[in-house]
């Protein structure tokens, strides 16, 4: 199994191209199930999760062709995917597939909307809390699907197709919003989704659905009104830049006291995290090319942060912020409100010398003068990248085991960082 070795202490300088967002690319790929025509997606990141979802969709009958980079493409430009679900050959998503990636559960809505039936295994994915699917099921019921649970599978049926309805989510869920939105795009009549997730990736999917022929009002707000279409058609869409990757590299630069241009990054996608970094003493300049991050000389100030749905501070940057704050001058308070049990990186950061006390959903991070390299274990996607950040700041060698978690969500991380002067390499088993 691959490992990553980081020798800490180098200042990062240069340019890092930001890739297309994983969390938009995945539901956009799934949206291809809604039409018999070809959906063209540009700027798709090269990630293990994307490849895995391609296989899962292939199982349902989606033909996928991938075009690589072409001469003249911008350096950060991702791949172009052409997905055609001309015939859906199988409406079953088996356990072996869905258990590897939670987002593949989102095929449920599109499949039942187009085919009138779907059988999808209950999901797996990152081990961060229980992560139920009640909101997904409630949404599909509101659109007229009959839902049964049998032997670990969700069986959804709507022989006469779905009809529009009112969905009012008790809690904000990104995945349930995607599922509901995609299903509503092919339901008969009008659907209103209240308390919808406002994450930019939801907006990206909604904009793609509009190009495919759905009518959607309220994109970017918490109330979405969708007029479903009998048929959706071919469209081309460019995946928006990854705000989590952007925030992650911003913190990596901040921890090394470096100066890096994050090419293609969009500040409007992560205003709250950038504000937190400014408060910590990081210099941030937004240009039309991207976001420049720098920190010269002065120490990092502690911060008080609570994770929240968008536009709040994202849970997907919580671990990275904790790594950064572990070398701040003072004690930071970080509260995780989205997922229970999303503190597994704490014990690994402690192996590097971080001083973090947990009290329920709150972590008190007392900054230390310096971290020291050690062997650590990646436990989930975002936790593993927090160990890279800590390793960049630590004295000596840090070896991160189980890096397949990193490959699920960060494109060419060791190449992007080493081009900016980091000493980081992959040790292949
Ligand atoms: C998505 C993101 C993930 C991110 C998360 C929160 C993708 C591929 N993944 O995950 O990176 O960390 O949003 O921003 O985009 N919940 C329920 N019932 C449900 C569904 C969710 O109670 O039916 C709860 C979850 O347990 C959690 C909260 O709602 O406490 C938010 O989860 P949700 O937004 O659904 O996360 P995902 O869509 O799985």
Sheet having the most strands: 4 strands, mixed
SS field, number of helical segments:
14
Tell me the structural class.
alpha/beta
- Inertia-based shape: globular
Average pLDDT metric: 94
Return residue spans where pLDDT drops below 50 for at least 5 consecutive residues.
125-129
Helix content: 25-40%
Ends distance? 5 Å
CATH class of the largest domain: Alpha Beta
Q: Could you give me the name of the CATH homologous superfamily of the largest domain?
A: Enolpyruvate transferase domain
Reported CATH architecture of the largest domain: Alpha-beta prism
**Strand fraction band?**
25-35%
What's the count of strands? 24
Strand order of the largest sheet: 22-23-1-24
Overall tally of domains: 2
| CATH domain fold name of the largest domain | UDP-n-acetylglucosamine1-carboxyvinyl-transferase, Chain
Query: What ligand molecules are bound, each kind once?
Result: uridine-diphosphate-N-acetylglucosamine
Radius of gyration computed on alpha carbons = 21 Å
């Amino acid at each position: 199994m691959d490992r990553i070795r980081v020798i800490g202490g180098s200042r990062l300088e240069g340019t890092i191209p930001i890739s297309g967002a994983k969390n938009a690319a995945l539901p956009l790929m799934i949206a291809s199930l809604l039409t018999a025509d070809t959906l063209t997606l540009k700027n798709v990141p090269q990630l293990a999760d994307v490849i895995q979802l391609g296989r899962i969709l292939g199982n349902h009958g989606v033909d996928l062709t991938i075009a690589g980079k072409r001469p003249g493409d911008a350096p950060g430009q991702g791949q172009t995917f052409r997905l055609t679900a001309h015939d859906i050959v199988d409406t079953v998503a088996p356990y072996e597939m869905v258990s590897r990636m939670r987002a593949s559960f989102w095929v449920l809505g599109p499949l039942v909307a187009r085919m009138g039936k779907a059988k999808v295994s209950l999901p797996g994915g990152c081990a961060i809390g229980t992560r139920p699917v009640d909101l997904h099921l409630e949404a599909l019921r509101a659109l007229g699907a009959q839902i049964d649970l049998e032997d670990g599978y969700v069986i959804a049926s709507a022989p006469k197709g779905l009809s529009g309805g009112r969905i009012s989510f008790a809690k904000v869920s990104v995945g349930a919003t995607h599922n509901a939105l995609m299903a509503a795009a092919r339901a008969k009549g009008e659907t209103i989704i209240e308390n919808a997730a406002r994450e930019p990736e939801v907006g990206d999917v909604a904009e793609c659905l509009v190009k495919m022929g759905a009518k959607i009002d309220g994109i970017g707000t918490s109330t979405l009104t969708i007029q479903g279409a009998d048929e959706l058609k071919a469209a081309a869409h460019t995946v928006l830049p990854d705000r989590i990757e952007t925030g992650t590299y911003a913190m990596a630069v901040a921890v090394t006291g470096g100066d890096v241009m994050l090419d293609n990054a969009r500040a409007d996608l992560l205003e709250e995290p950038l504000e937190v970094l400014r408060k910590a003493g990081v210099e941030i300049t937004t240009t039309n090319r991207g976001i420049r991050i720098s920190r010269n000389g002065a120490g990092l100030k502690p911060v008080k942060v609570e994770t929240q749905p968008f536009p709040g501070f994202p849970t997907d940057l919580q671990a990275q912020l904790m790594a950064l704050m572990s070398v701040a001058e003072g004690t930071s308070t970080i509260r995780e409100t989205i997922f229970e049990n999303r503190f597994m990186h704490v014990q690994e950061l402690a192996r590097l010398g971080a001083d973090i006390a947990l009290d329920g959903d709150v972590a008190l991070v007392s900054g230390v003068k310096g971290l020291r390299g050690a062997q650590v274990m990646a436990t989930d996607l975002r936790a593993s990248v927090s160990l890279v950040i800590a390793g960049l700041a630590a004295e000596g060698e840090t070896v991160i085991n189980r890096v397949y978690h990193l490959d699920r969500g960060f494109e060419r991380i060791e190449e992007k960082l080493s081009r900016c002067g980091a000493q980081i390499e992959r040790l292949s088993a």
